[in-house]
């Protein structure tokens, strides 16, 4: 710190301003006279995209391992595995002289139409946050930095550079900021990247509340805030808002604007110095760790295969998988030869190699047992001849494997999907092949949900392979032939149809604004509340074995500050080894504000031999039971009863236990002139002040209305949600003082009682 303060004191305003703006597309400025080096950053949610020319954004990058995308990694629910992925990515970053990897992305999958959903983990902020923590810790454990992104509410590609996301404070805190908060507090990323969009009228790059008040002050973020590439509109305003580093550079006019603003007193020197300090700390931290100039391509490829295998989700299986030995197999689908293993855009990796599904299936079955038909092309066109060829291949096989993937024109960064459908060619292919071959298995490669309702009953099995990285083909083959028991589970809900989705009415907005009108009710929270049937629920996934849950242990009472430990026994009741993902949800019986039916608050992945039983232990803490109260501007807990729900998915709750929590909070009185009678009664201090005259107030109202039911309503029901002052106005002549003065007197007494 002393070294950095000394350097800042020696720097000119011009040098400070230059340091706060990139020197190229991928590097920060260096100041040779002071020994300040530059650092190199590269895209990196699921691999290192390091270009040779630091001034070129779209140049093909150096070869690197293309690991499974976040959508697949999240479906593993395996934090240890994601940590190892991070370590491997850091090794490759060192080998390519990259100091910071731009990732992970933890934006919530608000709609399955999001074009960038493959880069994001989940619809649930807790799962997203925990996955991000593991990746960040893995990367940074090897001395390479990360950039948690895109902060915040970057949940659609449509008009992403200008869209204004209108979100209420509670929804913002509980859903769209929560994963960022978990990652910042638990993993301490070196940098956080702001998003392009606006939140409640302010660009994220200029958002003082988001960047300064919440991220840096409230959460204690110690790193630097970097812009998304081209997200800055006004460098001076963004500097005052809390943005430390603008990328890309150089930006000569922006640099001069900062210098002029400091010289003119528009920007306090301390604001610029603070950004410089944060940047220098990361610059020098990045030079502390040394790494090898090469990496083990084979071991990293094998790790990518392991992650893909645990992320693939078995969604349906009618006694066809694993495939029988010696079966004649028709492999159908262009993506069996040209796998759809990653998405388009800034995360696109130049892989060290790519495994081909058809080749791996031939390795397992033998060449004379496998036939291939293309079925469709990468273009969204209909070709009956390709379908006819596929039907011919399927007719003479014992089973048909249909490999299906959305074309790049339907799923990529930069634009959202228009629907959840496969192409007409692919749905026609499923219909035709399944009609001739009852033993049909569909393997889907997509970054988010697709509609399967029209054809799901016509196929025997369905695997969701996501965008599974360069080694995913081998992982699929391992599962199809039973060498690996599938253990992935859904990190997002697959709806029956698009119209069922929570944001359907509000998305994508208009007039450059989008209203997050569904509030807290995103993903399974919405389907629970509306009691809507889903195709595949959050947390769902099949196995080749079965698991039994028993002996749930939860304390009868606990305090919020101590939390509690959930213990449950899980037994593999099948004949082969397998892995089960135990999910813990919390249901609040009663709260001052509405809460979702249940929320994920803990999970664990456990490996079990056939017949083996293990006790799974999951810790729940204060935040497992708290919700954000916008009136108190803080996370609050309340005394009361909770259900601890343990299940195999959000819709498959196996065990339930009741417990009672005592809150440690002593909340301040927030009654005001607009508080309703209900709010006065439910506030203990307000009730104490008001109680002596409550019965008298009700009697007077009844008298005014001519009796309890003279106009067809209950008098208390009529007034309970009226402001106290309004109620008293009807009794003005009977009061010791004017109604507004009396309410002020009550407020003074209630607030004086303290917490």
Layout of secondary structure:
Layout: H1 2-10, H2 13-19, E1 41-43, H3 70-76, H4 79-95, E2 100-102, H5 125-140, E3 145-151, E4 164-166, H6 169-176, H7 178-187, E5 191-194, E6 198-199, E7 202-203, H8 208-218, E8 224-227, H9 235-241, H10 252-263, H11 269-286, H12 297-311, E9 313-317, E10 329-332, H13 357-365, E11 370-373, H14 384-395, E12 399-405, H15 424-436, E13 440-445, E14 461-464, H16 472-480, E15 494-495, E16 513-515, H17 524-530, E17 534-536, E18 547-553, E19 557-559, E20 564-572, E21 578-588, E22 599-608, E23 613-620, H18 622-625, E24 627-629, E25 634-636, E26 640-649, E27 652-662, H19 677-682, H20 684-705, H21 715-719, H22 724-729, H23 739-752
Parallel strand pairs: 1-2, 2-3, 3-5, 4-6, 4-16, 5-8, 10-11, 10-12, 12-13, 13-14, 19-27
Antiparallel strand pairs: 6-7, 9-14, 15-17, 18-20, 20-23, 21-22, 21-26, 24-25, 26-27
Helix pairs in contact: 2-10, 3-12, 4-5, 4-12, 5-7, 12-16, 13-16, 14-15, 20-23
